[in-house]
Amino acid sequence: MNKTYWIISAIITLCGLTVMSLGAKQMKTEAKTVSDPEQMEFTDVRSIHLEIKSSEVELYAAEGAESTKISVINAPASFKMEENISNENGVLTIKENTDRFNFVDFDFLSQEPKMKTVITVPAGVDYEEIHVKVGSGDVTDMHGISADDLMITIGSGDAEIHDMRILGGSEIRLGTGDIIMQGMEMFGGTELKSGSGDAELRHCYLADGVNIDYGSGECSMENVEVIGDLEVKFGSGDMNVSAMEVSGVTTMKYGSGDLELNSFTPGESTELQFSSGSADISLTGSREDYAFRTKAGSGDITIGGEDSNNYNGGSGKPFSITVGSGDINVSFEQ
Fold it and tell me: Which residues pair with 174 in a beta bridge?
């Protein structure tokens, strides 16, 4: 029995030492040996595809620039500018090699500064595709760019984008992290998804429909115009909306959370569903502009100061409210 115990212990110890040795070797191999920025420059770039395991990213238009410049600081030794960056047929590709055998992540042991990738492009150029994919890291500044297609995917990290014009569609996905969008003109439909995190949308014009799907987080929107349908799904979290106008169908579904909806101008129809939560809603126009249908499980629904639980009436735009548990108050600006 004792002999078997010591043999097993020796095997476990040997495995542990082997793993630590591999980790030390990996850390040495990936040590961020570059402290000064390395740069490359390209012309005739029509699309940008970036795929990085871990990096802070900046991508913006620079007035007076005549070429696209890439600057990388604190890159791992495995990242070679000449090997990992290319421009073929107008497609600028920045891609980190991730095909090596890596069964244990030792990044948590490293105290080295994080990689930073900065891309500046000429202002006034209409790009075909802007695709950014980051495993871990923030897109700290993306602005001033016009493109047909925008795609941002971040496993863990935040994104801040502003003053961009997207003509053919946008897709933004975050595993965990916050997003700020301001001064955006987005056509072709916009899809915003996050497992966990907050969202802020300010002064945005969103055409051809918007889909917002959040597992948990807080959402605030101000001065947002949606041409087409708006669909919002929240697992849990609060939402604060001010001065929003929708031309099509609005659908908002909440698992749990509170809603502040101020100066809302609905379009063709509106449907609000709450499993658990409260809402304070201020609508443009008067009560005569809407046809309400309400259903409450536990809680009170008040419309224009009147008790309106399980109410069905009016001849204007359809406006449906269903709540499992919580209080809903609807008021009018006229």
Answer: 154, 194
pLDDT tens column, 298-322? 889 999 999 999 999 999 999 999 9
pTM equals 0.85
CB 132 within 8 A of CB 52: no
HEC secondary structure over 193-213 = EEEECCEEEEEEEEECCEEEE
Q: Which residue has the tokens 């699309």?
A: 47
The CA distance from 121 to 187, in Å, is 22
Q: What is the mean pLDDT of residues 141-157?
A: 97
What is the C-alpha to C-alpha distance for residues 75 and 85, in angstroms, rounded to an integer? 13
Token readout for 226 is 């949606």
Query: Residue type for 270, please?
Result: T
Sign of CA dihedral 154, 155, 157, 158: positive
Exposed (0-12), middle (13-18) or buried (19+): which is 28, by Cβ within 10 Å?
A: exposed
**Which residue from 163, 226, 171, 161 is spatially nearest to 194, judged by alpha carbons?**
171
What does the DSSP assignment read for 143-167?
Answer: ES-EEEEEEEEEEE--EEEES-EES
Q: Return the residue matching tokens 């047929």.
A: 89
Name residue 248's amino acid: G
Contact between 234 and 214 under an 8 Å Cβ cutoff? The reply is yes
Strand 301-303 relative to strand 306-307, pairing: antiparallel
210-256 pLDDT, tens digit per residue, is 999 999 999 999 999 999 999 999 999 999 999 999 999 999 998 99
* Over residues 72-97, mean pLDDT: 93
Half-sphere exposure of 90 (CA within 13 A, CB side): 9
Of 9-18, 54-63, 120-129, the one with minimum mean pLDDT is: 9-18
